[in-house]
């Protein structure tokens, strides 16, 4: 444990100790405040001390029960009638102390471990802890300050809406993702890749298409969507066309850049072997272009989701994630709106992550994936 981490644990415990001097909210019991604060102080100090000099096995035994107890306790306090909407310094100092303790824990995990067995855990754990901390702070702030549901919902309310509207959300997701996002992404990326191969053979096309791609990429989605509706009817093909238009040029630009990534020495070596254009393309230039190609695929995975949802704001079938967000927002049904946003966020992240996993398997030879 470094000096910075030791000071962090002590400051976290001190903040929680000072919080015992302040009320949690209106009408809270001072004795219960002292008891809860004492539990927090002991938990934070014990967790910090147990992490000192221990490897991952010792961390888990200390982390799981203490973090779970601390989070559950403070969340219950936030939702109690005497605190929700009228939270005082006693609550916020505890929340800041827990946040600081989580920060120190993430820092320790990120800088610990010395072998291949722990590298994957070391890379994954900080991301999970950081995301969980943000969700908890979101929950505590919204409930503690009593923020109106019209402005912002806590994650717990969004989760309840997802469970309550699971059938509607599933139907909207299947329609938007399979009919529009996935199909448009495949067509846009595939056509962009093929046109890039043609442009690589014809310099005139390469010089003309790349500036055009920059112009088209700057076009607003809300301007493209109505035009696509006029061209491809009001049904899902018009939304798919919007996704194709958004994903075509990023894939084209990245593929053209990737095909030029191979070095002059490598190309000279292929020519010395008597290799023509196509063997050079397959054996040298395409493998060298793979990081660029996957970069375009990952960028387009997010653009496709955004394009499909925005396109559904305009006339079309009474189904889909964008349609549901638009109509329910007009009715002030913020729980359904946030539930649709949550599903879109998770789907987009999983889509991006799946492409990243395929990239890692295909481009395992790339220096960025080599282990020290």
From TrEMBL:
The chain crosses the membrane at residues 7-25, 31-49, 56-77, 89-106, 127-153, 173-197, 209-232, 244-265, 286-311, 336-358. The keyword Membrane applies. Keywords: Cell membrane, Membrane, Transmembrane, Transmembrane helix, Transport. Residues 192-362 form the ABC transmembrane type-1 domain. It holds the Pfam family BPD_transp_1. It is found in: Cell membrane. One of its GO terms (biological process) is transmembrane transport. Its main location: membrane. This is ABC transmembrane type-1 domain-containing protein. It comes from Labrys okinawensis. The lineage of its organism: Bacteria, Pseudomonadati, Pseudomonadota, Alphaproteobacteria, Hyphomicrobiales.
């Amino acid at each position: 444990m470094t000096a910075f981490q030791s000071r962090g644990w002590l400051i976290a415990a001190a903040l929680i100790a000072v919080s015992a001097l302040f009320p949690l909210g209106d009408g809270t019991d001072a004795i219960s405040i002292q008891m809860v604060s004492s539990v927090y102080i002991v938990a934070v100090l014990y967790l910090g001390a147990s992490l000192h000099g221990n490897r991952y096995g010792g961390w888990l035994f200390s982390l799981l029960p203490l973090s779970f107890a601390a989070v559950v306790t403070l969340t219950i306090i936030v939702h109690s009638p005497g605190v929700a909407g009228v939270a005082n310094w006693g609550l916020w100092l505890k929340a800041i102390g827990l946040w600081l303790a989580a920060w120190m824990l993430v820092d320790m995990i990120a800088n610990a471990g010395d072998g291949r067995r722990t590298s994957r855990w070391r890379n994954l754990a900080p991301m999970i802890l950081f995301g969980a901390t943000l969700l908890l702070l979101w929950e505590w702030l919204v409930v503690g300050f009593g923020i109106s549901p019209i402005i912002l919902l806590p994650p717990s309310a969004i989760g309840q809406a997802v469970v309550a509207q699971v059938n509607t959300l599933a139907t909207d997701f299947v329609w938007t993702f399979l009919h529009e996002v996935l199909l448009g992404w495949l067509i846009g990326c595939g056509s962009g890749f093929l046109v890039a191969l043609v442009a690589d053979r014809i310099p005139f096309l390469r010089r003309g298409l790349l500036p055009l791609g920059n112009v088209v990429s700057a076009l607003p989605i809300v301007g493209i969507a109505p035009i696509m509706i006029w061209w491809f009817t009001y049904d899902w093909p018009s939304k798919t066309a919007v996704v194709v238009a958004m994903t075509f040029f990023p894939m084209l630009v990245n593929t053209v850049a990737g095909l030029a990534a191979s070095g002059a020495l490598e190309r000279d070596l292929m020519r010395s072997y008597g290799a023509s254009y196509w063997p050079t393309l397959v054996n040298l230039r395409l493998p060298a272009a793979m990081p660029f190609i996957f970069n375009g695929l990952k960028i387009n995975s997010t653009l496709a989701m955004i394009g499909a949802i925005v396109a559904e704001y305009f006339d079309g079938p009474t189904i889909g994630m964008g349609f549901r967000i638009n109509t329910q927002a007009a009715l002030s049904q913020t729980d359904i709106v946030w539930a649709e946003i949550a599903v879109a966020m998770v789907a987009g992240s999983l889509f991006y992550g799946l492409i990243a996993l395929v990239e890692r398997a295909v481009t395992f030879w790339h220096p960025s994936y080599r282990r020290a």
